[in-house]
Amino acid sequence: MRIIKLLLFGLLMCYFFNHVQKLPGKVAPFFIEEVWAFILCIVFVPVNWFLEWRKWQVSLSEIPHNVEKIPQFHAFAAGMVTGFFTPSMLGNFIGRMSFFDRAEKMKVVYLTQYGNLAQFTATMIFGVLACIALEDSFLPQHLQFLSITLVIAVAIGSVLVYLSLDKLIRKVRWINSKLGAEGDSRLTLPFKIELLVLSCLRHTIFTIQFSLLFIAFGASIDWSIILLIWQIYLVVTLIPSLFFGKILIRDSIAWLMLAPIGFDIHQVFSTTLWIWILNLLLPALFFLIIVNVNRKWAV
To answer: CA–CA separation, 240 vs 24, rounded Å?
Structure first.
């Protein structure tokens, strides 16, 4: 197991340095013009993951078990590590379920993915607001109406699925019977609202961090840029990818949307790179150490 973890760590480092080397020659991801903005962005990193931790605690409240005896933080840390290697952190359930008894693993998967669905829904909501508010689009004129209509339909669909998924699952007897000792997939409306509010707060933190990094690399920020940031997260979320938090996709989408309004390549690629480092790479490495130290807790 230790060898596997060392290989994972090496893979992370190789990927990081390979990505930096592939950036265009004029890009200087470590040249920061406004240090205060960069430091403030770092301050929001623990706030971001505290909100995710709070979502995890809310999810645990739905498990009919004495959660105080479960190594909650160790399971959360393992989920951070496995989530790093999957799109949009969707694989975080893999690490989390390893710390629970067999009878509860399915419930952990179900609740974790419900939390992921809440984050997806929040991204859709903010993205639709941005599409409606922005008059201009990076798409050709004849595609703008179609794209906005499609995005609104996806957003409405995601909200409806989020609010009613537990009712749909309840009709699937095989899945419902696996969800804990009581075999009950029902989730209360306050539970769903709390997860969605926490997810919206996380999205707000993402927006603040993105804006602060733009300022740190010499760009100016106004309300239209914030709306574009929401659109970037919307498009990145909808585009499928395989590994490492979609960093290359986020780079390309951000450049496509921001270049026409005057952002230079240094500002865009440096910002997206540091978003990835601060919010995904460094937390994954930190939690990998925790998982290694506390591996005895895994079931």
So the answer is: 25
